[in-house]
Amino acid sequence: FKEAAIYAGLKHAKGDYAVIIDADLQHPPHLIIDMYKAIKEEGYDSVACKRTNRKGEPLLRSLGAKIFYKLMNLISKTKFVDGATDYRMMKKKMYQSVLELGEYNRFSKGLFEWVGFKTKWIGFENVERKAGGKSRIPFFKSVSYAIEAIVSFSTAPLMLAVGIGLLFCIISFIMIIVIIVKTLMLGDPTSGWPSLVCIIFMISGIQLFCLGIIGEYLAKMYIETKKRPIYIIDETEEDVDE
After folding, report:
1. Is 133 left (phi over 0), alpha (psi -120 to 50) or beta?
2. Using 50, 70 and 90 to split pLDDT, how confident is the model at 236?
3. 24 near 129, Cβ under 8 Å?
4. Alpha helices in the chain (DSSP H)
5. What's the pLDDT at 232?
6. Is 4 helix (H, G, I), strand (E, B) or coil?
7. Alpha carbons 61 and 140: distance in angstroms, whole number
8. Contact 53, 126 (CB under 8 A)
9. Sign of the four-CA dihedral 99, 101, 103, 107
10. Torsion angle of alpha carbons 17, 145, 126, 108, nearest 10°?
11. Residue 161's CB: how many other CB atoms inside 10 A?
């Protein structure tokens, strides 16, 4: 829902600048002045904000976020800034470029970086939200969102699947040779069906794992081919005036 809301807001923006900010006041509104000055006086196309700490967040969520950013910078060509938020000001040419990326499965933090405009980062201390109570995003929803980012901005999981499959093919080939040599030289009968079953299960598990990774990419392609709208407007100010 957040990604659709960001897209809808930018789609209907008409000014020379657009600002994205959370409504729960975790993003300090006074930084908008600093953003505007940086764009006007320093020549930046965008000014974005990042957290300098994760005060008030659960330890597991904070640790997961740090791992996520390190992983993304390792496997993706797009740069991801640790602690990055969606809080930013952009020139019209930048947010219009973001809108040209009409994909249904969106990860805005990555899209903002992908378009490649000159961006300045401002740090701020994380504070407890002033409205809306606690975060309503479950941990597993955050994990799903992270997977969305990985699949959208990296093909490394596909190469991982290929590498794992190749590795286990080599291991299986070596094991077959060992069994043949052992049988011919020592006359060891072919026995131990439990170990054989374990090997079969292991290889089957690896195959399913690799198919699951490929399935994630195919699922994204399937959704994109439907060309469903990213958002639907129920009512606008023009409708109310009428």
Report:
1. left
2. low
3. yes
4. 2-11, 31-42, 59-75, 92-100, 108-114, 139-153, 156-186, 193-226, 237-241
5. 56
6. helix
7. 10
8. yes
9. negative
10. -10
11. 19
Report the DSSP beta bridge partners of residue 68. Answer: none
pLDDT, averaged across the chain: 78
Residue showing tokens 């496997």? 75
CA distance 94 to 46: 8
How far apart CA 172 and CA 156 sit, in angstroms, is 24
Q: Can you tell me whether residue 17 is helix, strand or coil?
A: strand
- C-alpha 228/C-alpha 219 separation (Å) is 14
Q: CA 195, CA 182: separation in Å to the nearest integer? A: 16
pLDDT confidence bin for 170, thresholds 50/70/90: confident
Q: Is the pLDDT of residue 194 over 60?
A: no
> How many CB atoms are located within 10 Å of the residue 156 CB?
16
